[in-house]
Amino acid sequence: MNYFEKNSAVVLKEQDSFDIEMILECGQCFRFKKTGEKEYRIIAEGKILNIRQTDDEIIFYPCTLKEFEAIWINYFDLTTDYSAIKTALSTDPVLKEACKFGSGIRILRQEPAECLISFIISQNNRIPMIKKVIENICEIWGEDLGGEYAFPDVSAMKDANQEELMACKTGFRHKYIRDCLDRLLDGSLDLEGLKEADTKTIKTELMKVKGVGEKVADCVLFFAFSRCEVFPTDVWIKRVMEHFYFEGKETPIKEIHAFAENKWGSLAGYAQQYLFYYARTRKIGV
Fold first, then answer.
1. What integer pLDDT is reported at residue 283 of this predicted model?
2. What values do phi and psi take at 134, rounded to 5?
3. 206-235 in b/e burial notation, b at 16+ Cβ within 10 A?
4. pLDDT band at residue 235, thresholds of 50, 70 and 90?
5. 164: buried, middle or exposed (CB in 10 Å: 19+, 13-18, 0-12)?
6. Cα separation, 238 vs 206, whole angstroms
7. Where do the H-state alpha helices sit in 8-154?
8. Comparing C-alpha atoms, which of 189, 27, 21 is closest to residue 110?
9. What's the pLDDT tens digit per position in 175-224?
10. What value, to the nearest 5°, has the Cα angle with vertex 122 and ends 118 and 128?
11. Number of H helices and number of E strands within the chain?
C-alpha cells in the first residue's frame, strides 16, 4: 500500500479495487453525500472525511497519517486482497460479469450499533428516506462536528421517547429503535462482547431485538462484524437470485441461503454485494 501525507490530506496511490462511488452507492451505508465527480463526504467513526478520487490517486481530507492508519485503513478494508476474492468468485460466469461491473467495491467495516440502528431504519424504506431519518436522529442526539453531526452514542439517546423518534420520520420503526436502545443500554445486547462469538450466536442475539429479521441481522453481521459467509437477502436480491440461478421460479429464502452457502461458502457476502450492485444498477430481475 503506497500512501503519504500532504497538505492536511493523505494520498493513496495505486490502490487496487477501490472506486469510491461503487463503495458508497452499493447499499452498505447511508451517511454520505456526493459533492462532485468521484468526490464524496462521509461521516463515520465520529469524523467528517472527504474523499476525492482521480485516475491514479485517492485523496482523504482533512486527514493525518496517524488518523489514516488508526481509522481509515480498517474502515475501508484496505488490507484485504479484493483481486483474489474476485478471481475466486469469477469461476461463476454470472459473478464474473458482476465482479467486473462492480470491480471497485470494498466492504466497509462499520460501527456495530450505528449499523444495526441504520438497517432497522432501512426496512421497507427508500434510500433517500433512510438517509434523512438517520440525519434527523444525528442532528438531535449526535455530536456537532461543525455543521454535520456524528451518529449518537447510545447513551445520548437513553431518554428518546416515541414522539421524538416519530418526529425523526422513523414511522413504525420507532418501537424497534427503542427496543434496540433499551437492550444496548441494559447490556442484554452486548455488541462489543459478541465480536468474538460465532456467527450463529451473534445472529441469534441480534434477532432478539424487535423488528430485526434475518436480512437486517445478516447485514449487520457482514458490514459490522465482517462475517463474510452470510448472504443478506431482501426482496430485490431474492428476485436477482431467482433470475440468475433458479430459472425465474419463486424460491424460498432458505433455499437461496443454502445455495449461496454451498456455492460461495466464506465469500457469500461478497457475492451478494457484487450481484446486488450489478443487478440494481443494470435493472436486472426487476
1. 82
2. -60, -40
3. beebeebebbbbbbbbbbbbebbbbbbbbe
4. confident
5. middle
6. 22
7. 20-25, 65-67, 73-75, 82-89, 93-101, 112-121, 127-141
8. 27
9. 999 999 999 999 999 999 999 999 999 999 999 999 999 999 999 999 99
10. 100
11. 14, 6
